[in-house]
Design goal:
It is built from six helices and ten strands, in the order E-E-E-H-E-E-H-E-H-H-H-E-H-E-E-E. The protein has 229 residues and is an alpha/beta fold. It has a single domain, classed as P-loop containing nucleotide triphosphate hydrolases (Rossmann fold). Helix 3 crosses helix 4. The C terminus is likely disordered.
Length: 229
């Protein structure tokens, strides 16, 4: 008996978003991302990377087309349901600025560690900080950390919370091993990057002027609109 096909974790179907031809707009983008896949979304500024991640996080409605998570249209799901499945990570996010890495990781432990005892949570917090290389900065304000340390904090938080999908954006440079750690934990990861070098992603998709111009999962496609940067 042939097994039923497994629905992609993320499926974008012929999506258009934003003003036609405007920077950051999308024009007929279709993309499927398997559960547990790690994908680097690359392209120059204004190519539509951030727009695509905002669509997947249900923070922006498409002009046409559909975005589905595990075969369900996100606009037929509640915002809280999508938020429980998708965790956006950005070092530019200011929501955690007043907290310390230790507080942020401890809160994630409270939500994500099954053993509720204070001793277990404390041990998990210290282990996560040590594994992420954050012991030296654990009591500094998150908002004062350099971008790479902020990303390490956010990655440690994601590894404890274990969302089904992680969306990474706004990172000028990734700390070594960060994508690999998220991938090895079995999370579905999409990371918006200026270039794919050192991304450690199993798949690289290039956007330019709101269109996919290359996808390593399908072999090289011709670049339609000049340099990818």
């Amino acid at each position: 008996m042939t097994p039923a096909p497994v629905a992609p974790a993320i499926e974008v179907r012929n999506v258009r978003c934003g003003g036609k031809g405007a920077p950051g707009s999308l024009e007929g983008v279709s993309l499927a991302v398997a559960a547990g896949e790690c994908l680097a979304l690359c392209g120059p500024a204004g190519s539509g990377k951030a727009t695509l991640l905002r669509l997947i996080a249900r923070r922006l409605p498409p002009r046409s087309g559909a975005v589905c998570l595990f075969a369900r249209d996100i606009w037929l799901m509640s915002a809280s349901e999508v938020a429980g499945m998708v965790l956006p990570l950005s070092p530019a996010d200011t929501a955690l600025d007043a907290m310390t890495p230790r507080q942020i990781v401890a809160e994630a432990c409270r939500r994500g560690v099954q053993d509720p005892s204070p001793a277990a949570r404390s041990a998990a917090t210290h282990a996560a900080l040590r594994q992420a290389g954050l012991a030296a900065v654990q009591d500094r304000a998150f908002g004062l950390l350099p971008p790479e340390d902020r990303l390490r904090v956010l990655a440690a938080r994601a590894l404890l919370l274990r969302p089904r999908i992680v969306l990474l954006s706004g990172a000028p440079r990734l700390p070594a091993g960060l994508l690999a750690d998220l991938r090895d934990a079995g999370l579905t990861v999409m990371a918006a990057l200026e270039e794919a070098a050192g991304a450690a992603a199993g798949r690289v998709v290039h956007l330019d002027r709101g269109r996919i111009v290359a996808d390593s999962a399908e072999g090289a496609k011709p670049v339609l609109h000049g340099s990818l940067g």
